[in-house]
Amino acid sequence: MTAQAGPPAGGTGDGGSASGKDAESSAWAPLRLPTYRTLWCAQLGSNVGTWMQTVGAQWMLVHQPNAPTLTSLVQAASLLPVLFLSLPAGVLADVLDRRRLLIALSVAMAAVSTALAVLTAAGLTTPTVLIALVFLMGCGSALSGPGWQAIQPELVPRAQIPAAAALGSLNVNLARAVGPALAGVLVAATGTDVVFGINAASFLGVVAALAVWHRAMAPAGGAPERMRSALSAGTRYVRNAPGVRRVLLRAALFVLPASALWGLLPVVSSQRLHQGAGGYGLLLGALGVGAIAGAVTVKRVRAALDRNVLLALSSAAFAAGSAVAALVTQPAVVALVLVMTGAGWLYALSTLNTTLQLALPSWVRARGLAVYLMVFMGGQGVGSLVWGLVANATSTRAALLAATALLLLTAASLAVWPMHARTGTFDRDVVAPWPEPMLAFDRTADDAADGPVLVEVTYEVPVERLPEFRAAMAALAVSRRRTGASHWSLYRDAEQPTTWVEAFQVPSWQEHLRQHESRLTAYDAELAARAGALSTTGPRVRHLIAPVGRAGGAGPHQAGRGGRHEGGPP
To answer: What is the pLDDT of residue 443?
Structure first.
């Protein structure tokens, strides 16, 4: 389990529900649901183990030569796998059974943690071995992160997603408060091998909790997606979702400078504050206590403040923590400020995560969250490594002060690149308002079995409605691309000026069927209905399929001699 991913938060899959309006609106309502509560507790144990391992691993290296680089490498090794595994993991979580996938990955991470404990007890864990095994653990976390995030709507109702996201962050930060303190005591009293062994055992609790979860079967959605097409569909959705792209931008701008404090705190504790393993654990615990306070208060704070203001304050709070770590040598003062910094971290993560959860439809949720994890956790890994190298080349103080300046610039940049006001407010429930298009020929017997599909939609639009129609089509174009279109164009008939033809191409017939069956959200349907209402005769649709193995279908203007289907919605 990764300490950053957080526990599941979100859906209705366990059959229980909180009763009454108070239960629905309570910040603790998701914990009334048995399955959510069981998984939340299991992940709390695993997150405590993860933080204990982090402290143990970093403390093994803190007295080595080039300690800033080595301690930063530990965090980088645990996070960098997200950069190249997160997207494939998102595809796997959307295509495979998420419960079985998470069980298999938890077992694998338990095995790696056990190997680390055994090698450390035998005195065989060199810095290279340590970083390599932490990297393998990071691979497991990267592969499991999108799956944990994507099962959220299966566990609590949509109305409880913000509360569940806050509880997820509370889980991680409660572990951050408890785990480092426990690790500091155990490292001093026994050794790091015991800490690593506890982390290995913590994964078994997660396996047990997943094993007793009776997951509801997902509705059938046609033939399963292939890996390559599913990956293309996910990245295409993110490219054509402006609100999602802005969340990713804000995540990157925050986490890259914020990672300096996470990566360099062991060095600050040892070399500037002259603390042992217990003191370092207490500093991490102060961040965790602040995050717990943030999780308890985030609902009231979010109701009182615009989310852009909240993100700006979060960046400023983390800038304060970085500056104090760079300039102050009194451990008590640093710990006190880190409490406020931890609250800022929680507010930022909760705001970004909740906004993205509400913005993504179910069919692409794991892939969209995979991109988010790639940006946030990958950014934290890259940032930790970069700040470690900067500190090694200059000083820890200089690196933290540079990060402070960038965090203040991040807060100021919200005036230029704010979170979109309506992101997360659109209806993302998947609907099927259109009948499945029918073919007039047998696909198995025709050479046009599954070539690119060109969809033409004809509208009759009076001249006085043209400005409104153009605006409606601009929004619809983005929707078509989000749900599967690789090309989109709008044409005006040269001989009949009131006739307009929308043409968009989808890579295959199966891909177009998925647009009908499992990708169209209520908001997408609303955009199509708005454009269709401006046509005096109602849209006329035809589908053209390029022959397989032929040159036709290279773009939206070339349908080849493929099969054709006329009438009905696209």
So the answer is: 55
Q: What sign does the CA torsion over 101, 107, 110, 115 have?
A: negative
Chain centroid to Cα 188, Å, comes to 36
CB atoms within 10 A of CB 395: 13
- Residue 12, φ and ψ in degrees, nearest 5: -140, 25
Specify the amino acid at residue 270: S
Whole-angstrom distance, CA of residue 486 vs CA of residue 51: 43
Of 125, 342, 367, 131, the C-alpha closest to 227 is: 367
Q: Enter the tokens of residue 233.
A: 């569909």
Task: Indicate if the alpha-carbon torsion angle 61, 63, 65, 67 is positive or negative.
Answer: positive
Long-range contacts, 441-450 (Cβ 8 Å, 24+): 441/563, 443/509, 443/563, 446/563, 447/547, 447/548, 447/549, 447/550, 448/545, 448/546, 448/547, 448/548, 448/560, 448/561, 448/562, 448/563, 449/509, 449/548, 450/508, 450/509, 450/510, 450/545, 450/548
DSSP symbol at 58: H
Tell me: the pLDDT tens digits for 13-54? 443 433 444 445 577 888 888 889 999 999 899 989 988 888
Contact 195, 55 (CB under 8 A): yes
> What is the token pair recorded at 530?
């708005």
Q: Kindly give the interhelix angle for 67-79 and 127-150, rounded to the nearest 10 degrees.
A: 30
- Phi, then psi, of 65 in degrees rounded to 5: -60, 150
Distance CA 231, CA 227 (A): 6
Average pLDDT rounded to a whole number, residues 345-373: 86
Question: Whose CA is closest to 510, among 96, 91, 218, 222?
Answer: 222
Q: How far is CA 36 from the centre of its chain?
A: 19
Calculate the dihedral angle through the C-alpha atoms of 162, 168, 174, 176, rounding to the nearest 10 degrees: -120
Structure-token pair, residue 261: 């404090």
Q: The pTM is what?
A: 0.74
pLDDT band at residue 432, thresholds of 50, 70 and 90? Answer: low
Q: What is the largest CA-CA distance in the chain?
A: 87
The residue-averaged pLDDT of 215-243 equals 75
How does pLDDT run across 129-152, given as a tens digit for each residue? 999 999 999 899 889 888 887 787
Q: Report the Cα 161 to chain-centroid distance in Å.
A: 14
Binning the chain into helix, strand and coil, the percentages to the nearest 5 are 65, 5, 25
Which three-class secondary structure string do you get for 84-111? HHHHHHHHHHHHCCHHHHHHHHHHHHHH
At CA 149, angle to CA 299 and CA 254, rounded to 5? 60
What is the spatial distance between Cα 511 and Cα 96, in angstroms, rounded to a whole number?
A: 18
Cα separation of 336 and 549, whole Å?
Answer: 67
d(CA 433, CA 528): 11
- The set of residues, in sequence order, having a beta carbon less than 8 Å from that of 228 and lying 6+ positions away, is none
